[in-house]
Fold:
Amino acid sequence: MSQADTTITTGGSSIDDRKNDFIKYVFFSCAFVTVLTTLGIILVLVQGSIEFFQHVSIVEYLTGTNWSPVIRPYSYGVLPLVWGTLIITVGSALIAIPVGTATAIYLSEYAEPRVRKVIKPTLEILAGIPTIVYGFFALSFITPVIQLVFPQTGTFNAAAGAIVVGIMIIPMVSSLSEDAMSSVPDELRNAAYGLGATKFEVSTNVVVPASLSGVVASYILALSRAIGETMAVTLAVGMTPQITANPLDSIQTMTAYMVQIGISDVSVDSIGYQSLFAVGLTLFILTLAMNMISLWVKSRYREEYQ
Structure:
């Protein structure tokens, strides 16, 4: 190779290195913005919560059973909001987990390619519907159906909220679970068939256990989505913070309370407004805990195949 060719090659390599460095810095900047945004959100929540807890005992906040930070007599027990959030989460899980898992098994093990091409995009469309539309659907359809069976049901009730949130998170459960089941090697299925197992036995005794980490992770992520749902539950369940076991009663979730304060005329310097940050921090911690559990389950029970 001549000296000129060596110079050209070296120059081209230098240009490629600069391009790679530039692309690396662009990607790093995007990642840094994401981390910085997360830290900014945490900082805002913590600062506002500190101001709130300077006036309210954290013990009263975590153990109190009455929540009325803007209406006399004032009380600052967050348990009614947590209870309302848990009712919606548990109720939606009772709907989304069995339906979503069964859908995933059907798509992964039973559905023909043509059928799968129709059902899969339909689920994606269901996941893309705005949450406020789900809220109106709960008010205009689900609640009237419940009232036909239980006439004492009010316009706002926990059952309608749980049902509509359950419908909302079905695509997350089914899609993530189906991806986990589809990643199971066919060798495991064929070995089970060779031992005389039926299609149902292969699906439930081989595929589901082999993909358990992904399936359970989809459950936890879907429940995290249910915990943080806002507009659908705001329209469906009402704004009555109370601890009740009756799903036909009106309740209030943490997200619904945050909407209520956000659109109200509460003074920025008031304790009622500062409670917005305390509730937001509580919600953030719950969601973070769910995501950490999901990551632990995936790393603990993940199966690796060659």
